[in-house]
Amino acid sequence: MNAGGDEDDAVLAAGRIGAAGERWGAATGVARAQGANALDFGRGLHGGSVPRPSRGSMTGAAASPELRRRGHSATIGADAHAALFVAFPGPASSLSTPPTPPDPPMQTIAITGANRGIGLATAQTLAADGHRILLLCRDERRGRRALATLPPLHGEARHHLVLCDLASLESVREAARRILDPDRPLDALVNNAAALPRQRTLSRDGFELQLAVTHLGHFLLTHILLPLLRRGAARAGKSRIVTVSSAAHAGPPFDFDDPHCERRRYRRTQVYQQSKLANVLFTAALARRVAGEGVEPVALHPGVYDTEILRDYLGRGAAGGAVRTFVGTDPDRAGPILAALAAGRRDEALAGKYLDKSVVTKPSRAARDRDAQERLWAWSLEAVGLGGRDG
């Protein structure tokens, strides 16, 4: 999305859904409510400025004790966010003739949130191209199921499931330690996972949950895995860090005074905007710190898809499903976009860039604020316990 303020695909789609839902009065009252939710979602993503489309348009700071206060907040318990760090190998090839080795050579690529939606589609696309995938997932059952869908690799190479809860810094550290192997460089890291809780929720470490999962968990994971990414760049000439942001990052500057919504009212779409803005700010700051090392951080708006986050927002009943038919496309269509950026396009200089699908574009004004980029970097270091380290 350009800084000029053009409405992105998500906003337009949400506006269409809202108008449709309001006209579905003949169906059910639930459908009307779902439509209103969708319009609110679109308005929230665009700072409250989404117009109602016409009928004709239907076609076309670190955690503190204060964070743990009661009231309208819900805290994720230790049991729900226990550190998970077991690594499971995928099956070996059962074919009498092994798959043909990939050309170019196999890369090792780690993907968060890889058990469903865009993350799984990306993993499947890359695996089909012969690349070794590390699935970083919070849920073991879903992770094992996703692992079983990946095509086997040539020879002795295996895909792996690494249990990792991005809402727990302990889990992130343990998962990263499972991945760290000096003999196995990392060619790409795809920071894909996100969260969109309905009410203000705190992570195990006391952070607002969206910010914890979407930004801080990925910030820490990236820091710990940087040595492997540097080795990958030294071996192949370049490695890449793809952080999945959104066109919805456009909006107000990052709120450093109240990042965890302790004082302001929790509006999930506004907090979503802040967390996705953090993705872009982080990418720009990281790019400066790894310049000349062959590691290329990029931020990506992959497009609008029928993903779990949208389902959680609109509801999972029949009416919610009907509403979602107006939104985006199948998440599988995002796989090739992310896969091409993670494993390909190595002849392009993309460090620090923001892409709308496959096209380099200018992020929002707030995302281009270098002071905000550096301030977020310093704040994030303190939040995840890396104070005093800068790269």
Which structural traits does this protein have?
391 residues; alpha/beta; Rossmann fold; nine-stranded mixed sheet; two-stranded parallel sheet; 11 strands; 38% helix
Overall description:
- This protein has helices spanning 9-22, 29-45, 117-128, 140-147, 169-179, 209-236, 268-289, 308-314, 318-324, 335-343, 370-383; strands spanning 74-75, 87-89, 108-112, 132-137, 160-163, 188-191, 201-202, 239-244, 295-301, 354-356, 359-361.
- Helix 2 (29-45) packs across helix 9.
- Strand 8 (239-244), helix 7 and strand 9 form a beta-alpha-beta unit.
- The chain is of the alpha/beta class and 391 residues long.
- The chain has one domain (71-305, 330-383): 3-Layer(aba) Sandwich (Rossmann fold), CATH 3.40.50.720.
- The radius of gyration is 21 Å and the shape is globular.
- The protein is built from eleven helices and eleven strands.
Rounded radius of gyration (Å): 21 Å
Give the uncertain stretches in residue-range form. Answer: 1-85, 93-98
CATH topology: Rossmann fold
What coarse outline follows from CA principal-axis ratios?
A: globular
Number of strands: 11
How many structural units, i.e. domains?
A: 1
Backbone structural class: alpha/beta
Order of helices and strands: HHEEEHEHEHEEHEHEHHHEEH
The end-to-end distance, rounded to whole angstroms, is 29 Å
* The CATH top-level class label: Alpha Beta
Helical coverage, percent range: 25-40%
Physical arrangement of strands within the biggest beta sheet: 2-5-4-3-6-8-9-10-11
Strand composition percent: 5-15%
Name the average pLDDT: 78
Looking at CATH, the homologous superfamily is NAD(P)-binding Rossmann-like Domain
CATH architecture designation = 3-Layer(aba) Sandwich
Largest sheet: 9 strands, mixed
